[in-house]
């Protein structure tokens, strides 16, 4: 880590949780360089494929209530 980053880090530790969260959001957004069009197209294709599997009966879904109930039981 650079000297400037180390200095900022030590100063930022004294900020409130809210201020640190706002800064974290800003930093993460500053790293977002836009949309990856290839990824968007790949996800569109994948979602179409999965929807086709569900419509054809090849894939069978689970009710959302059941899934959330199992997750709550597992992670509570």
- Strand count: 0
- Subunit organisation of the chains: single chain
By helix and strand content, what is the structural category?
mainly alpha
N- and C-termini, Cα separation = 37 Å
Q: SSE string, helix = H, strand = E? A: HHHH
Globular, elongated, flat, extended or rod-shaped: what is the shape? Answer: elongated
Low-pLDDT sequence parts: none
Q: Beta fraction of the residues?
A: under 5%
How is the main sheet built?
none
Total count of helical runs of at least 4 residues:
4
Rounded mean pLDDT is 93
Helix content: over 70%
**In the residues, how many domains can be counted?**
2
Using only C-alpha atoms, the radius of gyration works out to: 22 Å
Summarize the structure.
The protein is mostly helical and 76 residues long. Helices cover 75% and strands 0% of the residues.
Describe this structure in words.
It is a single chain. Helix content is 75%, strand content 0%. With 76 residues, the protein is an all-alpha fold. The chain folds into two domains: 1-32; 45-75, no CATH class. The relative contact order is 0.05.
